[in-house]
Specification:
The longest helix has 17 residues, at about 185-200. The protein has 13 helices and 8 strands. Helix 3 (about 50-60) packs across helix 5 (about 85-100), helix 7 packs parallel to helix 9 and helix 9 (about 185-200) packs parallel to helix 10 (about 210-220). It has an 8-stranded parallel β-barrel, surrounded by 6 helices. It has about 325 residues and is of the alpha/beta class. The two termini are about 35 Å apart. It has 2 domains: about 25-260, TIM Barrel (Alpha-Beta Barrel); about 270-300, no CATH class. It is about 40% helix and about 10% strand. Strand 3, helix 6 and strand 4 form a beta-alpha-beta unit. The structure holds 3-methyl-2-oxobutanoic acid. 3-methyl-2-oxobutanoic acid (KIV) binds near residues 68 and 205. The site of 3-methyl-2-oxobutanoic acid has 12 residues, from strand 6.
């Protein structure tokens, strides 16, 4: 009998062990994040959009995963986050949750899904939690969305705020520009942050702010600030996974991001090697192929085309 042949490569014990060692014993809740305000160790957040990267982020021990609407440009190839739909967010949240069962997962509310009335916002956030399995939602905006945030919190939905450079306002802001660069703009952002805290946000993303403005907001609000392009003084940092990994399909890595590996180059190299191996018939080799057993081989050797020994004409279209 032929030994069982399996498509899967099993995870080695060593891989399994190192993964479980780094996996947190208990996943943080939004409440745990909130009470980390002002503690010495900054919170670590990263985006993820699919099963394998969520699994790796969890194995690396991040505090929380954001399924951001950066999905739009990072994974789906759009110019902005604006085309991202609620359905797409639910779909990707489900994949991330399958990969990261022990990590806090936050789902982003896409463009307009929380701006057409409080009832819509509650229903849409509810879908991210019930269908997407998010444990919290994030939404962009300052004082104009404070009442909506209050209603979500009232409905039992933990909310992460997001102010400063809010990419869903890409066209209104005239692109991805650093915000809060005048005294009036900086004070307005502080007022926004205080309004979001008052509305019940468990944390607030500060994106694209001068370091000192982000530091001043961090000092004055009572919930953790999570910075991206906002300097080192926030209570935590969030980064887009693909920027950290150099997996941007040639797009420029932004100044605020640090690239820890250059996956674009590694992937292109690997795929080039695969293509060369296929073209030169070096792939698949014996190790990647599945031999037939002797009985099957004997059956093949005995095989004759139907009618081959009778002298009958082959039926039309039989190819013989
Ligand atoms: O959508 C996203 O990924 C974000 C983070 C960059 C904060 O909003």
């Amino acid at each position: 009998m032929v030994a069982a042949q399996c498509y899967d490569t099993a995870m080695t014990d060593q891989e399994g062990a190192s993964r479980s060692q780094r996996t947190p014993a208990r996943r943080l809740t939004p409440y745990d994040v909130q009470v980390r305000k002002g503690t010495a160790e900054p919170l670590v957040l990263v985006t993820a959009y699919d099963f394998p990267t969520a699994r790796l982020a969890e194995a690396a021990g991040v505090d929380a995963i954001l399924v951001g609407d950066t999905l739009g440009h990072v994974v789906l190839g759009h110019l902005t986050t604006i085309p991202v739909t609620l359905e797409a967010m639910v779909h990707h949240l489900q994949a991330v949750r399958r990969g990261a069962r022990r990590t806090l997962v936050i789902g982003d509310m896409p463009f307009l899904t929380f701006r057409t009335g409080i009832k819509d916002a509650v229903r849409h956030a509810g879908r991210l939690m019930q269908e997407g399995n998010a444990q919290a939602v994030k939404l962009e905006g300052g004082r104009p969305v404070a009442a909506t945030i209050g209603a979500l919190v009232e409905a039992g939905i933990p909310v992460m705020g997001h102010i400063g450079l809010t990419p869903q306002s890409y066209y209104q802001l005239g692109g991805n520009r650093i915000q809060g660069r005048t005294p009036t703009a900086a004070r307005a952002l502080l007022d926004d942050a205080l309004a979001l805290e008052e509305a019940g946000c468990f944390s607030i993303v500060l994106e694209g702010l001068p370091t000192e403005v982000a530091a001043a907001i961090t000092e004055r609000v009572g919930v953790p600030t999570i910075g991206i392009a906002a300097g080192p003084d926030c209570d935590g940092q969030v980064q887009v996974l693909h920027d950290l990994l150099g997996f941007t399909a040639g797009r420029r890595t932004k100044r605020h991001a640090r690239r820890y590996v250059h996956l674009d180059a590694l992937i292109e190299q690997a795929l080039g090697a695969y293509a060369a191996d296929v073209r030169s018939r070096k792939f698949p080799g014996v190790a990647e192929s599945f031999p037939a057993d002797e009985q099957t081989l004997a059956g093949l050797a005995d095989w004759e085309a139907p009618g081959a020994d009778t002298g009958e004409a082959a039926p039309p279209g039989s190819g013989t």
